[in-house]
Structure formats: C-alpha cells, structure tokens
Amino acid sequence: MAVPLEIKKISETVWELPVTFRKGMRVPARIYATEKLLKSMDETVFEQAANVAKLPGILKYSYCMPDGHWGYGFPIGGVAAMDAETGVISPGGIGFDINCGMRLISTNLTYEQMQPHLTDLVDRLFQQIPCGVGCKGFVKISKNEFKRVVEQGAPWCVAQGYGWSEDLERTEEGGCMPGADAARVSEHAIERGFHQLGTLGSGNHYLEIQVAKPGNIFDKGLAAQFGITKPNQIVVMFHCGSRGFGHQVAADYLQIFLKVMKDKYGLDVEDRELACAPFNSPEGQDYFKAMKCAVNMAFANRQVILHRIREVFAEVFGKTPQELGMHQIYDVAHNIAKLEEHVIDGKKRKVLVHRKGSTRAFGPGMEGIPFIYRKTGQPVIIGGSMETGSYLLAGVEGSKETFCSTAHGSGRTMSRRKAREMFRGRQLQDDMRARGIYVHTASYAGLAEEAGSAYKSIDDVTAATEMAGISRRVARFVPIGNVKG
Amino acid sequence: MRLDIVSYFEFRAFYIMPYHYLDDVATADIAFEACGESKEELFIAAADALMNVMVEDLGTITERLRREVSVEAETFEMLLFQFLQEFIYYKDAEQLLLRAARIRFKEHKGMWMVTARAYGETLDPKKHPLNVDVKAVTMHQFAVSENRGQWKARVVLDI
C-alpha cells in the first residue's frame, strides 16, 4: 500500500492531503490515523477522500477516520460537512445501508452466570431473530402500517409494546428523525422492507453476547455511568440497518441523481457513486425525506430486535428483562446525513454532515444527547470483528475538530473471496468454540468471510481515535456468543 | 431443470460459467465480470453471477414458478443496472431465487426496454446453500462493453 508523497504530517494522528493533491479539490483532505494505520490503508482511500473534497459546499476538510477503507464514492470512514445553503447531498456519502448502526444493552449478569446457558441462549436468539439471505421478520404488518413505521421510527415500536420508553431516550434522535415522508419512497422499497422488521441481515451484521472483563475497563467512572459496574458483566451488542428498504431507497435516488446532476444542476463528479444534487433542490430534499424514512426503519428494526432479545433472555433465565437489568446503553447510526449546528471560524452554521462508516461523537454538554449522558459525552459503540472484540467509547469536546465524528468499526483489510479461500466456516466455528466463543451462523461461507484476520485491529483503531482526541475509550468487550447472518 | 425451458443461452449459462469474480476491486464487497456472445447471454450471465453470490449452488434452484422481469432505462448500461436490481427486489419482496431466460430487448425513442422470463422458487435455507446477501448493485466502475460481438459487463455489488 502506498501513501501519497504529497501527504503532510499535521500531528501523530492527523495527515493532510493539500488541495494541490488533485485538481478540483475545494478543501484539503484529512486522514485521522496513526502512521501504522495510515500505511495499511488502500490507495483508493486517498483518491476517494480527494474526490469528496471536490464536492460543492464542502466545509473545512474531507475527513477519513482511522478505520477508513475503500468505499463507493466516499471512503468508508468518510465524513463531509456541506453548507446547508450552497452544498450538495450525496447518497454515496451515506451508503446503501442507510442508518446501519450499533445498539448496546447492559445486563446485571456476570460471565459465570451466563456460561451454563450460553449455547441455549445463542441458539434461541438465532431462532427468534431471523438473519441471512432474504429473511422475514416476526412483525406482521400491512404496507400501509409499514409507511407509518418509516415515518415514526422506534416510537412506533414502543407504542406497540416492543420496548420501554427509556429505550427511546437512549437512541440517537430519540429513534425517529422528524420530517420523514413515505410519499418520497418507491413501492419497490416498501415491498422489499415491510416484512423485514426484526431481521438482522447478513454480511458483517451480527448479534453478540460480550463480557466486560475488569482488565478491559479504561475508565471506571465513565463505565459505571454507562451501566458497566460489575466485573465480567455481560452486555449484548448488535449491528444492523434498514435492510432491503434502505438499500432500495439508496439505489432509487442514485439513479435519480445521476439523471439530473449534470443536465439540470451542472454538477460533475469523478465517480458515479458520488452522484449528488444541491441539498436545496427538489431532488435533494426528496432524498433527504426518503433517507429519513430509511433511518427510522433502521431504528425501528433495532428496537424490535431489542424486544426479542429481552424475551429470549427472560425465557432462558426465568426472570423479567427488568430483573435482568436489560437497559439499553445507547443506539448509534454510522451511515447517515444530518443537519447539525457547528461553529466554523467562530460562527454558528447549519451544516449537513455526511457520515459514512463514522459515528457521531458529541462531547459533554452538547445538545442532542440524552440528559443522563450530558456530563459524560455520548456513548459511541464500535463493533469489531467477531473474533476480537468491540468497544464502548465516549464523545469528547475535541471531536468538534471533525464535526463531532469518530470511527465506527475495525474496517476490512482482506477481500471476502480471499477470506473464503483462507478460512473454512466449520473449522473457524470449531476454533472459535475452543477459544470460548460460540457462534451460530446462517451460512458457513458467510462466516469464513467474517474471520477476524480479515479486519484491522480494533485496538489500534480505537486507540487512534483517543490519541487524536476525537473520542475516548471506556471499555473493551470480548465476544463469547455470536449470531451471524 | 425441465427440458422445455433449456435454450441455447441457458445451456451456455449453466455449463460454461460465463462470469468470474474479481478479487482486487472491492475489499468489503464483491465484484464480478460477466460475458456473453450476445446482449441476451450477457444479461443471463450477469443475473446468475449476482444470484451465485447469495446461493452457493445455482443448480439447487429449480423451476417452480415464473416471473416476468421487465424494466426500461435511458441507456443500455442503466438497463442492466435496473435489471439486476429486480433480482434483488424479488429476493427481498417475495423471497424468490430467480434465474433469467428468454430475453427480449427493445429500443424505442431513446429508451431501452428489456423483458425476461425468469424462473425459480421460494428461498429455502434447507435446500439452497446460502452465502451472503446482496444489498444493492453499485455504479462503482459499472461498465458494459462490446468488442467484435463479445459482450462484457463489470459490476460491483454492495454486501
């Protein structure tokens, strides 16, 4: 992998590609990474970060987080804030899986209490939360009702009895982005999504039972405020998004934007996946309203999955979810665009922040995070590979430097096909079991593709975000049980 | 597969594997190159390449039902893009695993149209060895070309 010669070292963890790197760059690109992570990035990351820097209305820098890797148009780990008046919106800056995100739930169980039930629990979770290719969820609703779901998000679920009202307070946006309009969404999208509520999906989507070992707590005080108080405490983490619904919304608008971009708005981009339209245009606003529907679908999806998880735990342990202390810690989106207020050159401005494979990391005192986390900064949930572990971070004041954004995961370094050549699903499952991780998978081939060695080190990625001062480590969780789509 | 639907194109699609996957294009996703000696063959091969990402053995998809897949687009390239999107749509909307056959193209006043008869069956994890789900067809390096009667398409799928 070759790092471009033009790159300038700003600090140990910030690297800059100047506007002279590629013709047409409006702002420099900044890569947040240690030298080791920078050197492991594929060359396309630099090209893609530079392409994003050419988009109209982009402010300050085109950013790439430490887990950055090759994406479509935008790199994964890409962050771009656009001026809300003069800038563009690009579906490629959000990703096909709109509001793909992470949810973390605490329990009052310890590893010792979990161990005898682990296999049974994972098997039941696998049964109750459908995953894999073309799966259908347990929530049976009509297409019209589904339109209400995508406009109302997680609050719809809680009103139906799928969850607790405190879950909503502990979800980004309260589980619903206002302004979603189902009329901006195609029938195809509705038909792909209306029976997928409560499904995990496939690829790198998963549900894990994890342990917070005492040696893996970085900040005891913060961990306690987030609900991690016991040695070897069990938590549940899962990763999924808006399913076929969101994928169709993204694909539909990609085509619409490609049609109007050049002829109607005179916009030219390097890569068709960077298709965009002015944010303040009929097409731009339609997409934003449709995107919000997909965002809400994903919040609703994670909400009913949480409900299902609580049901399974209650069955297995013979106690209510309340008795098991199954409070949601937080839910974060890492593929999204949001209108936020940020201070630029001393002035407060409304900006449209695209985060593609990047998590919002609001620091202490910021508006928009739950009251209980006002003093701590928002929880940031970082999913690692199924073999290595995951992290809970907290947002910090310094994240203002990156429009309050940090990493989202570990980032792949090995292609899916290469991973399948190197690993055998069944063997991997046995090896992991011997190491104390029980996996129930919908596909052995799919399992092989998710082998831990196909990813960057999550420890390096999270450490880099802390060194760069854009988030801080609170706890590292080790997987012991995994439901793999 | 029943004999009455075996056409020359399908014969080629089954026995010659007119597509292959590309390793160095997409780290987190899957890219393929499909080819054919006609536009029809190309579309059948590309649909199979897409389905083969999700189903390990296409031979396990038997003809239980049919659907007519019909889309139109302003360019021939976008026609293939939309055609492939339809196979993803049927997989999610009706849990159908489909393979394309009998393809007809039309070009009229700057619009391209394709109609295909697709056959297949409802997805059944016990019968169909499943791999990973495809979220979408991407426009990244998406290309369709023809050279001396040889048609080629390069497609990157989002996983």
Describe this structure in words.
- The complex is a heterodimer of chains A (485) and B (159).
- Chain A is α+β, with helices and mostly antiparallel strands and 485 residues long.
- Chain A contains 15 helices and 19 strands.
- The longest helix of chain A is centred in the middle third of the chain and has 36 residues, at 282-317.
- The mean pLDDT of chain A is 96.
- Chain B has 159 residues and is α+β, with helices and mostly antiparallel strands.
- Chain B has a single domain (3-158), classed as Archease, Possible Chaperone, Chain: A, domain 1 (3-Layer(bab) Sandwich), CATH 3.55.10.10.
- Helix content of chain B is 26%, strand content 38%.
- Residues 1-6 of chain B have low confidence and may be disordered.
- The chains are: A alpha+beta (485), B alpha+beta (159).
- The A-B interface holds A 42, 69-73, 76, 96-97, 132-134, 136, 188, 191-193, 196, 201-204, 243-244, 247-248, 250-251, 254-255, 258-259, 271-273, 275, 412-418, 442-443, 445-446, 449, 485 and B 21, 23-24, 26-30, 54-56, 74, 78, 81-82, 85, 88-89, 91-93, 95, 97, 123, 125, 129-133, 135-140, 142, 156, 158-159.
Features of the shown structure:
heterodimer; A: 485 residues; alpha+beta; eight-stranded mixed β-sheet; seven-stranded mixed β-sheet; 15 helices; globular; B: 159 residues; Archease, Possible Chaperone, Chain: A, domain 1; five-stranded antiparallel β-sheet; three-stranded antiparallel β-sheet; 3 helices; 38% strand; disordered N terminus
Question: Could you name the CATH topology of chain B?
Answer: Archease, Possible Chaperone, Chain: A, domain 1
Strand fraction of chain B: 35-45%
Give the number of DSSP strands of chain B. Answer: 8
Average pLDDT over all residues of chain B: 90
Low-confidence stretches of chain B: 1-6
Q: Largest sheet of chain B, described in full? A: 5 strands, antiparallel
> Which percent range describes the beta-strand content of chain A?
15-25%
| Overall average pLDDT of chain A | 96
